[in-house]
């Protein structure tokens, strides 16, 4: 005999969603953060289903929670890195050859002492061997990844980022070595022009704090190069808040920029750096990779209340890892809405946009429902990219939202939702020390030993 399975697909997803408390996006009136207290994660469930046969035998369904694992697919990236190493090695050997050619020329029309040239030659060989060593270290990194592959159960995203950073720092070092080789050739070498070598970067401002350090104190746009292998780009620097040196990632102040955008828009950034904008996930990734960063969020509501949140660590992974968010511990006055509770936690979540669903809500797209790109959970206790409302509003809570704001918890389901006048996200190196009161620096002690 055959038990019919009517509408199981739909029924099961509804049950699963209910069991996991994931109905937030589907039902506007259940979206308050505190509605979720007391619910554990989605456990393994055994439940009866369908009509019981005579004699009490009932069909039973075993449900396992979905399992998601991050596989170290940077393996593909490593191949690219090794290719890049080969290219760099080729550059080194052609540079080395051109230096030798050039030395012969130089011997013809210069003083016979020529110690410098011999020194350069030795230097080239030394650098070449360094390059070889580095490339074998890169192979070591590859092995390391293979080993990590074998220990998947212990693998967290943070580990992967460490490996990525390790490889990246080796690459940066290698690039640096090759760049310095570029300046070692005797100056009259004619073939030097033909050699395609990376430009030597003399002054690199990785983020706003580097401009602060050289004495720039006005809040405006500056050009930064967080990673010398990528092109530089403009950022807005806040040189006033809490000592200054902040690179602004996001700003809302008047609703002039639409934040309901595609994955591609959030990737490259949009808006006006002097008003409202999203800097762009690729740039945010490079900035947070170049130095250990802290995050500051400033918020102001329409009653003039201004509060802030500080996170002592902030890292956004690359596009391959879906710009996963990593935040450290909280301090501040606005409350820890990015990590509100076990079930409302934006930390370690992927980026989701209306056209790219990477959230933890199984039956829909939080980005579509809440009209923005964000590191959605299932779905949110904070969303600074929501719509800009000029006053309180009703309906779906798709405005700029910070769940720990004073009075936020009192709003009734279906009632008015509060809105924000200003929001700003910015980062600064963790070990940055603002110079407080630099007046004494201009005083020199003259005459005293
Ligand atoms: C490159 O690596 C070598 C050895 O690992 C180290 O001594 C050197 O300081 C590094 N250079 C840069 C620019 O990081
Ligand atoms: C913002 O952009 C979205 C998607 O293009 C569009 O549907 C929406 O109407 C826009 N909102 C405003 C206020 O222009
Ligand atoms: C940096 O370079 C990588 C690889 O070429 C590219 O995918 C990425 O978009 C670049 N990032 C920026 C901010 O230009
Ligand atoms: C939070 O910040 C304040 C002000 O900077 C500081 O005094 C305090 O020690 C910080 N608390 C923690 C837990 O870091
Ligand atoms: C809202 O939160 C505040 C402080 O977090 C608390 O004192 C108050 O009782 C809460 N109100 C409701 C209705 O839960
Ligand atoms: Ca989803």
């Amino acid at each position: 005999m055959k038990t019919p399975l009517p509408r199981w697909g739909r029924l099961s997803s509804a049950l699963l969603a209910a069991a996991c408390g994931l109905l937030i996006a589907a039902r506007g009136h259940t979206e308050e953060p505190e509605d979720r207290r007391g619910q554990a994660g989605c456990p393994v469930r055994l439940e009866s289903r369908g009509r019981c046969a005579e004699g009490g035998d009932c069909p039973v369904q075993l449900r396992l929670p979905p399992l998601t694992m991050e596989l170290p697919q940077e393996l593909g990236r490593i191949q690219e890195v090794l290719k890049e190493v080969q290219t760099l090695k080729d550059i080194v050997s052609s540079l080395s050859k051109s230096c030798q050619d050039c030395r012969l020329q130089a011997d013809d029309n210069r003083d016979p002492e020529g110690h410098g040239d011999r020194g350069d030659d030795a230097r080239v060989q030394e650098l070449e061997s360094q390059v070889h060593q580095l490339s074998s270290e890169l192979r070591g990194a590859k092995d390391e990844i293979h080993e990590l592959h074998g220990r998947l159960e212990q693998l967290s995203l943070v580990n992967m980022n460490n490996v990525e950073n390790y490889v990246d720092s080796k690459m940066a070092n290698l690039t640096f070595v090759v760049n310095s080789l570029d300046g070692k050739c005797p100056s009259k070498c004619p073939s030097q022009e033909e050699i395609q070598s990376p430009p030597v970067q003399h002054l690199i401002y990785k983020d706003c704090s580097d401009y602060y350090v050289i004495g720039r104190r006005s809040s405006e746009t500056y050009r930064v190069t967080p990673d010398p292998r990528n092109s530089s780009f403009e950022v807005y620097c806040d040189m006033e808040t809490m000592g200054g040196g902040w690179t602004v990632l996001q700003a809302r102040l008047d609703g002039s920029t639409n934040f309901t955008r595609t994955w591609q828009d959030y990737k490259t950034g949009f808006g006006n750096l002097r008003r409202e904008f999203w800097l762009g996930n690729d740039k945010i990734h490079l900035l947070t990779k170049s130095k250990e960063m802290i995050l500051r969020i400033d918020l102001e509501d329409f009653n003039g209340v201004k509060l802030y949140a500080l996170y002592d660590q902030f890292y956004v992974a690359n596009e391959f890892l879906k710009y996963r968010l990593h935040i450290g511990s909280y301090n501040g006055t606005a409350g820890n809405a990015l990590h509100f509770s076990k079930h409302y936690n934006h930390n370690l979540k992927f980026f989701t946009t209306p056209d790219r669903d990477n959230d933890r809500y199984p039956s829909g797209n939080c980005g579509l429902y809440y009209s923005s790109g964000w590191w959605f959970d299932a779905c949110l206790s904070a969303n600074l990219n929501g719509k800009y409302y000029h006053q309180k509003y009703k309906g779906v809570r798709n405005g700029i939202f910070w769940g720990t704001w004073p009075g936020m918890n009192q709003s009734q389901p279906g009632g008015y939702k509060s809105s924000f006048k200003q929001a700003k996200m910015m980062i600064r190196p963790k070990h940055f020390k603002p110079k407080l009161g630099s007046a004494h620096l201009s005083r020199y002690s003259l005459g005293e030993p």
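The two ends are 104 Å apart (CA to CA). Residues 353 and 373 are 4 Å apart (CA to CA).
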